Amino acid sequence: MAEKQSKKKLALHWKIMIGMALGILFGIVMLYVSNGPDIVKDWIKPFGSIFIKSLKLIAIPLILASLISGITNLKDISKLSKMGGRTIGIYIVTTILAVSIGLVLVNLVKPGNSITDKTRTELVKNYSGDTQKYKDEAKRQKDAGPLQALEDLVPENIFAAATSNRNMLQIIFFAVFFGISLVLIPEEKGKTVQSFFNGVNEVILKMVDLIMLAAPYGVFALLAALVVEAPNPDLFQALGFYALTVVFGLLGMIVIYIIIMSAYTKKSPKFFLNGIAPAQLLAFSTSSSAATLPVTMERVTEHLGVDEDVSSFVLPIGATINMDGTSLYQAVAAVFIAQAFGMDLTLGTQLGIIATATLASIGSAAVPGAGMVMLVGVLGYAGIPEAGLALIFAVDRPLDMCRTVVNVTGDATVSMIVAKSIDKLGEPKVKDWDDNFVQ
């Protein structure tokens, strides 16, 4: 009896994959059942819609709590003058680079364009509803002045802005402004507010955990409805191209990290990979930068030679605001969904995606599934139907595992660069089995 109780439960990512497979099979079967498609639309699809709404529900609270909590953890804004300024500056640059790489790849590969006109028409009909509002918004952006985006960044009413996920940039602006102001006031006066937002952040993260427990059932409903409403096989071919585009971009980011690290610190790629590999493997298995943080700090300090003062400052901030893998994925996913719906995003809109994905990744919690939540804001900004999440959720879990590896690798890279820049990068304290870890 004790032995049975000690058995581990099936991991969530396996449950999601099973739900995905069962949803596809169920949808295929229902295509050959009398009134099967109607049954799926009336009795199965609503559960998928509820799942998407639950993700949208916590998007704005997640940004507010995560950003304000992360900024206030800096404690002293003056720290940004040297180590802090370099850390955040490098994080922002690498994030912009990641988003740009994602946009270049998705525009070159065009995975969404492999969907036929018939399937695209069905997608627009079944998922986007009335698309005229998106066309009107695109025209409005085209007719706006050159500084309209900057003007729109500042909300005139934060409560009004918080009523729509489309105002994600305004929410991020307010959260950053609020967080910096909270740090600048005396600690004893801001302690209660800081504790409040830290508590809210913990609650939101728990809500993410609870929502993700329903992910297998949400995936089942979404995929079943997707099959009966757009059963064309080219959709799944496009999904494969999309996944490969994301993975190729993520691999490219790791290569870029290694090149930058080697050029600046004069350390070999083998040395870097030997030191960080265990943290990368843990990141892949947990899909959580936060869960991997203790191991990342140990590897960076003990095996890569980064001074503890640097690693204890750079890495926690990185786990909060440095989500290069997530931002790259958001850029690719947003354009892919737009392509799937036959939308032609202008250069201005895609530049806006760079800004939105960069800032949204700062507020993306370091837990599994949070990237999908933040993607809602990116889609809302670009006027892309949020129901398009159904197209990519089937492969989100394995991609989440891959992009977490990139997030952790980026944190380690930046910690080495910052340590080198202030002469706090020395020899590793531990030289044992890891010298032969990567041949």
TrEMBL record:
GO function terms (MF aspect): symporter activity
GO biological process terms on file: dicarboxylic acid transport; L-alpha-amino acid transmembrane transport
Recorded topology in the membrane: Multi-pass membrane protein
TM ranges: 12-34, 46-68, 88-109, 168-186, 207-227, 239-259, 373-395
Main subcellular localisation: membrane
Keywords: Cell membrane, Glycoprotein, Membrane, Symport, Transmembrane, Transmembrane helix, Transport
Keyword Glycoprotein: yes
Protein location: Cell membrane
InterPro entries hit by this protein: DAACS, Na-dicarboxylate_symporter, Na-dicarboxylate_symporter_CS, Na:dicarbo_symporter_sf
This protein's record includes keyword Kinase: no
Gene3D superfamilies attached to this UniProt entry: Sodium:dicarboxylate symporter
PROSITE patterns: NA_DICARBOXYL_SYMP_2
Cellular component annotations (GO), alphabetically ordered: plasma membrane
The protein's name in its UniProt record: Dicarboxylate/amino acid:cation symporter
Source organism: Putridiphycobacter roseus
Species classification: Bacteria, Pseudomonadati, Bacteroidota, Flavobacteriia, Flavobacteriales
